[in-house]
Amino acid sequence: MVKSMGKIFNVGNRIMNTYVYPCADGYIMIDTGYEHSLKDVERKLNQKNIKLSDIQYVFLTHAHDDHAGFLNELLGKNNDMKVITSDKSMPTLKRGQNSFEGGCSTLLAWVFCKLMGSVGKAEHRFPVIEDRYNDRFIEITENNKRELENILQGKILFTPGHTADSISLKVGKDIFCGDAAMNGFPSVKRLIIWIENIEQFKQSWNVLLNEDIELIYPAHGKPFYKNDLRKYMDEVQKVCLRSLK
């Protein structure tokens, strides 16, 4: 079922990666970006000769402000597009704010989060998904998972830890991992800044390592080889979450 991926385009920015790759009838988009960033994403799509109407599905790795920020606007501009999500995502999408369960993974991450809070960037709010778009969301279940994998031409992986609803997608020899790992400041050793459940996070790294893959495409930072996770697994074992309260 899993096919070679072909071309991957990153139409995001320095903060948030928004990947697109071709499928049978158009393109799949992995996550969106912060609110108000659709215009820039659309400009980059046009540079690749891809129209918004070519996006058939958005695969939402989890419901956070930097991943679902312009979903409403995108759904309004593309009347045929649908969103594939975890069956645990909708409460957060309807609340329009990240969960604050858990804590920062490192001291550097804690300092960074405190700094962001001091300049008014701590609420992590995003537009609530409008009720008129409810039927455009497909929640992953045991009954529809295989069908969705055929559409996505890949394998859906459940990778909670960063959030309870975190999912990843393997296509060919690559994995889009969302925030199951990170490769950019203020991350160290592929750890994501915020972790809700450290035990689940550890297990999700093992899920990624157990797949026959080459590259991991994180939502933040450049792609990296899966052996990085194996190399830094000991660091995950040492994590002691630091609350922002």
Quick recap of the structure?
With 245 residues, the protein is an alpha/beta fold. The protein has helices spanning 38-47, 65-68, 71-77, 90-95, 107-118, 145-152, 198-209, 227-237; strands at residues 9-10, 19-23, 26-30, 55-59, 82-85, 103-104, 137-139, 155-158, 167-171, 174-178, 194-195, 215-218, 224-225.
Structure description:
The protein has 245 residues and is α/β, with parallel strands linked by helices. Helix content is 29%, strand content 20%. It is built from 8 helices and 13 strands. It has helices at 38-47, 65-68, 71-77, 90-95, 107-118, 145-152, 198-209, 227-237; strands spanning 9-10, 19-23, 26-30, 55-59, 82-85, 103-104, 137-139, 155-158, 167-171, 174-178, 194-195, 215-218, 224-225. It has a 6-stranded mixed beta sheet, covered by helices on one side. A hairpin with an 8-residue loop joins β1 and β2. The radius of gyration is 17 Å and the shape is globular. The model has no long low-confidence stretch (mean pLDDT 95).
